[in-house]
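Cont'd.
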Amino acid sequence: MPHVPSPITSETGDSVDPFSHPSLITPSLEHAIAEAKHLVVLTGAGVSAESGVPTFRSSGGLWAQYDPTQLATREAFSRDPDLVWHWYSWRRGIIRGVQPNPGHFALVEAETLFPRFSLITQNVDNLHRRAGSSDVHELHGNIERSRCLDCARAYPGDEAPPSENALRCECGGLIRPGVVWFGESLPESELIFAQEAARTCDLFLSVGTSGLVYPAAALPLIAHQNGAYVVEINPELSAIARQMDECIAAPSGVALPMIIETTKRLRTTA
Ligand code: BJW
Ligand code: ZN
């Protein structure tokens, strides 16, 4: 079993001063941080929860209110494109109205603190880039983008079509959100990058993901099997928590800034 400290706060982390909880960083993690030459961070919806973006599977998450088979599959879109666009336009509106949180900003700082740093996200919300991360590998696409279902031509992000007519590409195909639905392949170059990063890193953080959706959920295991120290950051234990060397039961907006502060301390005094 991984090391699991007690939770320190609620999911929102509102009332927590991260630096008053030094026990979140165990000696093993401190050692792994001090030694790491390649840090990989895999993020999921939980990283954006503190910004106000709904997660998928938490209580009150998107899947508690909506049936994914009616919304996040190619078949659902072909059946009722207006319904699916309505849902994505609503989510685009939420995402445009929120700001990156301390977890996102901590990952911007990580770029300069490790010899190599790879940021891989399942999130489609663009918040890592808006925070300032310069090299974000998106496994499930980006909600701001659109493309033709048939010819894959790219369309500007804000073309959420108001009617069936506007949904059509000049080739006659339907314009769809630029995300990856169930049963679809992930972008090949991003998946290859992610798997290679997982194989070659020495420290891997799996942050704010339920670990239920593959192939992303296999990345921590790949890292573990190749000798990396693997850490989960999530107020709840995920489906893949048993594969971790340790689990930090805290919101990412608390734990990630703490990891960055520890890294700065270790690397400036080394
Ligand atoms: C906090 C927090 C805080 C809250 N701080 N944490 C192998 C085995 C079994 C099945 C498969 C397999 N390989 C492929 C499959 C099929 C399928 C799959 O995985 N199904 C499983 C569900 C069973 N995968 C696919 O279809 C993928 N395609 C594929 O593999 O192609 C090849 C293939 C095709 C067909 C057959 C076989 C192979 C595609 C997956 C696409 C996923 N798409 C979505 C929607 C994207 C568009 C959109 O946004 O609408 O991606 S689904 C949804 O889940 C979204 C997310 O990126 C993804 C992951 O969710 P995530 O990020 O983990 O969020 P949550 O809500 O689940 O969890 C949030 C967590 O945060 C919770 O744990 C909280 O506790 C925590 N949290 N507050 C830190 N403050
Ligand atoms: Zn087209």
